[in-house]
Amino acid sequence: MSLSPPLAVSTRRAPLAFAWMLLLACVLALTGCPSNTKQNDGLDRNQYAWSGAIRWGDFEGAMNLIDPRVRDANPVGAIELERYKQVQISAYRDVGATRDNEAGTAMRDIEIGVINRHTMAERTVRYRETWKWDPTAQVWWLTSSLPDLWAGQ
Q1: Which residues are registered as beta bridge partners of 92?
Q2: Has residue 45 been placed in a domain?
Q3: What are the pLDDT digits (tens) for 32-88?
Q4: Residue 44 φ then ψ, to 5°
Q5: Model confidence at 137: pLDDT above 60
Q6: Would 108 be classed as within a structural domain?
Q7: What residues have CB less than 8 Å from 68, skipping those under 6 apart?
Q8: Domain range spanning residue 104?
Q9: Which domain of life is it from (predicted)?
Q10: 1 by DSSP, 3-state: which?
Q11: CATH number of domain containing 130
């Protein structure tokens, strides 16, 4: 049984037509997605850097992401930094977050696993990060200070 010429031509065009329809569907789907702006990327980058510094116990490095006005108002002394060296971070979990790009604010609720290096006792601490967009410097700053890993102790 042979195919007639018109049917053979339409069968060859079907994959091309399907590809064009798929491409059109993808383009239409992407137009509904919010675009990643420099501001969004900056927040994600700084939150990632902050959580990495805390996870690895680099509290002095983490302080570079705190708003300079907050750092100046609440300086962390040498004794406090030594206290941070007495703990090991075992977990850093994001348990909830909000972001308001119009207001230039963001918050993240964090659960931190903390191990006392001397007693090897582990406990969990809750911490809320608050972030503020600085339009002049074009950077997100943390407006809360270092987490209080000894809350209630």
Answers
A1: 112
A2: yes
A3: 444 447 788 999 999 999 999 999 999 999 999 999 999 999 999 999 999 999 999
A4: -60, -40
A5: yes
A6: yes
A7: 141
A8: 38-142
A9: Bacteria
A10: coil
A11: 3.10.450.50
Q: In 10 A of CB 146, how many CB atoms?
A: 19
Closest CA to 142 of 37, 38, 43: 43
In a domain, 92, yes or no: yes
CA 118 to chain CA mean position, Å: 31
| CA neighbor of 117 nearest in space, from 84, 87, 75, 144 | 87
pTM: 0.73
> Where are the alpha helices (H) located in 32-67, listed in sequence order?
38-55, 59-62
Q: Which residue has the tokens 């972001």?
A: 99
- Provide the domain count of the chain: 1
Kindly state the average pLDDT of the residues 111-122.
Answer: 95
The torsion of the CA quartet 94, 95, 100, 105, rounded to 10 degrees, works out to -60
